[in-house]
C-alpha cells in the first residue's frame, strides 16, 4: 500500500511570506502528526490531529498552524516566515492517537527561507 | 519533563564490526521506546519498539535493543554492521496514552568504514 505522501518535497520562500505544506496519510490511518527537523534543534513535535481535531500541540509560536480534513489529509501553515523556519518538515501517520500505534513517516518537505 | 539523551553524536565502525548506540531517557512512568533510522534525504523508518514484556526486543535489519529500567537505557545493538547501515539513528519516547507525540533524542550519525 502507498506510504505517507508529502507535497511539495522542496520549497523556497522569502521572509515574511507564508507557506502551506500537505500530508496525505496511509489509507485507513486517521492520525497525523507533524515534526520540524533542524540541525540545531533536532526533531521537534509540532502538532497532532485525529478525526479533524487537534489533540496536541508543541511549543511553537502561533505562526504555525495546521488542520485535518475529513479524509484524514492534513495541512500545516506557517505565516510570516522567518529564516529560522528553514527546516525539514516531517509528517507521520498512524491508525489512531495511541502511543503504541506505529507511526509511518513521509519523506518530508524541505523548506528554505531566504 | 520527558527527555531522551543520545550521548554519541557521531560513531564510526568498520564493516562487520559490532555496534551499540546508546540511549537514555527520563520519564516518570513506564515509557514506550522506539528506535528510528533516517537515511539522507529520507523520512524516518521504525527499527523497533518496546512497550512492555521481554526487555530484549528484535527489530528489522538485524537490530535489537535492550530496555534496562534500572539504568533508564534503551541501547540499540547489531552484531555485524553492513555498509548500508550508515545513516542517522534516533531514539524516541512517548508515554503511551492517547497521543502519538514523540520526544526524540538528538540522533547518532553512524559512518561505516570498508
SSE arrangement:
The complex is a heterodimer of chains A (114) and B (114).
Chain A: E1 5-7, E2 10-13, E3 19-24, E4 31-38, E5 42-50, E6 53-57, E7 64-68, E8 74-78, E9 87-94, E10 104-105, E11 109-113
Parallel strand pairs in A: 2-11
Antiparallel strand pairs in A: 1-3, 3-8, 4-5, 4-9, 5-6, 7-8, 9-10, 9-11
Chain B: E1 3-5, E2 10-14, E3 19-21, E4 24-26, E5 32-38, E6 44-50, E7 56-58, E8 64-68, E9 73-78, E10 87-94, E11 103-104, E12 108-113
Parallel strand pairs in B: 2-12
Antiparallel strand pairs in B: 1-4, 3-9, 5-6, 5-10, 7-8, 8-9, 10-11, 10-12
Task: Write a structural description.
The complex is a heterodimer of chains A (114) and B (114). In chain A, 0% of the residues lie in helices and 53% in strands. With 114 residues, chain A is mostly beta strands. The relative contact order of chain A is 0.32. In chain A, a hairpin with a 2-residue loop joins β5 (42-50) and β6. Chain A contains no helices and eleven strands. Helices cover 0% and strands 51% of the residues of chain B. Chain B has 114 residues and is mostly beta strands.
Strand content of chain A: over 45%
Count of strand segments of chain A:
11
The termini of chain B sit apart by 41 Å
Strand content of chain B: over 45%
User: What would you call the shape of chain B?
Assistant: globular
Please give the alpha-carbon distance between the first and last residues of chain A: 37 Å
Largest interface: A-B, 27 and 26 residues
Q: Could you report the average pLDDT of chain A, rounded to the nearest whole number?
A: 94
Query: Which ranges of chain B are low-confidence, i.e. pLDDT below 50, for 5 or more consecutive residues?
Result: none
N-to-C SSE series of chain A?
EEEEEEEEEEE
Instruction: Specify the structural class of chain B.
Output: mainly beta
Mind summarizing the main beta sheet of chain B?
6 strands, mixed
Please, what is the oligomeric state? heterodimer
Helical residue percent band of chain A: under 10%
Helix content of chain B: under 10%
Amino acid at each position: 500500500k502507498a506510504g505517507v505522501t508529502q507535497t511539495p518535497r522542496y520549497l523556497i520562500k522569502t521572509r515574511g511570506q507564508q507557506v502551506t505544506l500537505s500530508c496525505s496519510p496511509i489509507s485507513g490511518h486517521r492520525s497525523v502528526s507533524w515534526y520540524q527537523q533542524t540541525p540545531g534543534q533536532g526533531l521537534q513535535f509540532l502538532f497532532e490531529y485525529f478525526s479533524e481535531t487537534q489533540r496536541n500541540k508543541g511549543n511553537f509560536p502561533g505562526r504555525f498552524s495546521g488542520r485535518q480534513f475529513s479524509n484524514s489529509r492534513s495541512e500545516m501553515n506557517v505565516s510570516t516566515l522567518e529564516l529560522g523556519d528553514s527546516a525539514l518538515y516531517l509528517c507521520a501517520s498512524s491508525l489512531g492517537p495511541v502511543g503504541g500505534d506505529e507511526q509511518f513517516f513521509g519523506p518530508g518537505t524541505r523548506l528554505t527561507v531566504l | 519533563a520527558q527527555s531522551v539523551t543520545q550521548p554519541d553524536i557521531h560513531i564510526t565502525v568498520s564493516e562487520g564490526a559490532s555496534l551499540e548506540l546508546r540511549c537514555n531517557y527520563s520519564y516518570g512512568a513506564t515509557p514506550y521506546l522506539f528506535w528510528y533510522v533516517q537515511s539522507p534525504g529520507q523520512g524516518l523508518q521504525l527499527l523497533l519498539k518496546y512497550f512492555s514484556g521481554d526487555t530484549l526486543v528484535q527489530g528489522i535489519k538485524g537490530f535489537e535493543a535492550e530496555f534496562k529500567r534500572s539504568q533508564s537505557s534503551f541501547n540499540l545493538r547489531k552484531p555485524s554492521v553492513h555498509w548500508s547501515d550508515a545513516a542517522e539513528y534516533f531514539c524516541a519516547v512517548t508515554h503511551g496514552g492517547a497521543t502519538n507525540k514523540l520526544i526524540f533524542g538528538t540522533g547518532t550519525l553512524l559512518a561505516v568504514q570498508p
